[in-house]
Amino acid sequence: MPGIIVVGSQWGDEGKGKVIDVFSAQADFVVRYQGGANAGHTLVVNGVKTVLHLVPSGILHPKTTCIIGAGVVLDVEEVLSEISSLRAAGLLQAPEQLKISDSATVLLSYHRLLDAAREQALGHEKIGTTGRGIGPAYEDRASRKAILFGDLFEPESLRTKLEQSLKEKNFLLERYYDTKPVELEPLYKRLLEIADQLAAFRCKDASLLVHKALKSGKKVLFEGAQGTMLDLLHGTYPFVTSSSTISGSACIGSGIGPNAVQKIIGITKAYTTRVGSGPFPTELGGDLGERIRREGAEFGATTGRPRRTGWLDLVALKYAIRVNGITNLALMKLDVLSGHERIDVCVAYKLDGQEVKDLPTATGDLVRVEPVYKTLQGWNDDISQVRSIQDLPQPARDYIQFIGNEVATPIDVVSVGPGREQTLWIKPLFT
Ligand code: GDP
Ligand code: IMO
Ligand code: MG
C-alpha cells in the first residue's frame, strides 16, 4: 500500500514542511499524526512564506486532502486562526481539503498556562518547551481526562467534562502554581463558537478514511512533527517533547497498520540544530555556530528563539535510521554550508576514553561524549541556483556521497534553498 512516512531525523526543524509541500504535488492525502502547535513547518512558494503549526503541509495543493489524526493535540484557537489566515490568502477554499479526527485531543488555554507554570517552576532546569501546552495536553490524554474534538459537538456532556477538568486544573493553577484560574463560562461559550466554526472540518473516523484511501491505491503521506531525538521514549529524555515522534507513531496516531507503509523518509539537515535545553554533542559555540545560525536563518518558526547549531552528527543519524526504519533520506539546507573551507562531520563519539559508534541511550552519557570528526573539503560557490545533482561542485557531491555511504542509506532528495524549485531529485518519490 502506498503510504510514505516523512519523519525528522534530528531535533526537529529539519525541513519537513518543505519536503511535504513538494511531495504533496504527487499525493492524494497528507496526515499529521502527532504533536501539536509546537511544530512550525515552513513552506516557501514563489517567495511567499507560509508557516503551519497544525494544518498539514499539503494544504497548498487544493487536490490533496489534509487530515489531522487522533494522535495530534489540537489547539482549537490555533487551528482556527491558521484556517482563517489560509483562507484570507485565498487557500483552503473548500472545507473538504481539511479533515480533523473526532478522536484528536483538544488543547485548551489551561494546558498552555500549566506548561508555562511548570517551566517557570523548573527554573534553570527547564526543558525549554515551546510553551504551547503540549505536555499537559498529552498528560490529560494518558490519564483519560482529555476532551476530544468530537466532544465539542455534544454541548451537554462537554460542559460536564469541562467542569471536571477545570476543578483539577484550577486547583493546580491557583494552589500549586499560584497563578490565576480559568473561568468555566467564557471558555464553554467560546468552545461552542469554535465547534460551530470547525464543524465543516469534522471527520468522525479518520482512521477509516486513511484506510480506504490506502486500500484503493491512493498516495498517502504521513507528516511527522518534531524529530527523532525529541521522541518521548527514544529521545534525550527528559529534554524531549511529550509525544512519540518516530515513524511508528504514524501508525498509532492515524490508526493504520504498519503494513500500509512503503517507505520511511528521514529528513536531515546537512548540519544540526536544536531549540531548547538538553544534550547536543556536535554543538558549535562561538563565531562558527553564529555563522551557521545566521546563514541558515536558524530561528524557531514557532517561538522565534535562536536555534543552537552544530555539525552533522552521523552517530545520531544512524540511530535515527535504526529506530525509525528510515529507508531513504532527504538532505536539506546544503546551500547553507557553502563558503566553508572545511566541513566537519561527526563519525563517532569518545565516551570515557573509548570510541563508540552507537548513540548512548542514557542522557547523562550523551552530555559527556566528545565528537570524533572527519574533516571534508568545503566549496565556495553559491549552490542555491543549482537544479541538478550533476551541477553541484565536486566537494558538495563528495559530501552527499560520504554521508550516504557512512549511514548506508540512499539519499533521494537534496535541498538547496527554501523554495519548491530548489529541490534536486536523485530518485522519484513514488515508484
Ligand atoms: P520543519 O519544522 O522540519 O518543517 O522545518 P522549519 O520550517 O521549522 O525550519 C526549516 C527552515 O529552513 C525553514 O525556514 C525553511 O523555509 C528553510 N529551508 C528548508 N529547506 C531549505 C534549504 O534547503 N535551504 C535553506 N537555505 N533553507 C531551507
Ligand atoms: P517541528 O515540527 C524543534 C522542542 C522544544 C523543547 C522540547 C519540548 O517544527 O520540527 P514542547 O513544546 O514540545 O513540550 O517542547 O521540544 N520542540 C521542537 N524543536 N522543532 C519542533 O517542531 C519542536 N517541537 C518541540 O524546543 O526543546
Ligand atoms: Mg519547525
Rg over C-alpha atoms, rounded to the nearest angstrom: 22 Å
Count the E strands.
20
Determine the mean pLDDT. Answer: 97
* Overall body shape: globular
Specify the CATH architecture of the largest domain.
3-Layer(aba) Sandwich
Measured as a percent range, the helix fraction is 25-40%
Q: Summarize the main sheet.
A: 10 strands, mixed
What structural category do the secondary elements indicate? alpha/beta
**What percentage of amino acids are in beta strands?**
15-25%
Structure notes:
This protein is α/β, with parallel strands linked by helices. The chain folds into 2 domains: 3-102 and 204-425, Adenylosuccinate Synthetase, subunit A, domain 1 (Adenylosuccinate Synthetase, Chain A, domain 1); 105-201, Adenylosuccinate Synthetase, subunit A, domain 2 (Orthogonal Bundle), CATH 1.10.300. It is 32% helix and 21% strand. The protein contains 12 helices and 20 strands. A 10-stranded mixed sheet has the order 9-7-5-2-10-1-11-15-19-20, sandwiched between helices. A hairpin with a 2-residue loop joins strand 3 and strand 4. Helix 3 crosses helix 4 (134-142) and helix 3 packs parallel to helix 5. The longest helix has 22 residues, at 155-176. The relative contact order is 0.16. The model has no long low-confidence stretch (mean pLDDT 97). Bound molecules: guanosine-5'-diphosphate, 6-O-phosphoryl inosine monophosphate (IMO) and magnesium ion. Residues 12-13, 39-41, 301 line the site of magnesium ion (MG). Residues 8, 11-13, 38-41, 127-130, 132, 134-135, 225-227, 230, 241-242, 275-276, 301 line the site of 6-O-phosphoryl inosine monophosphate.
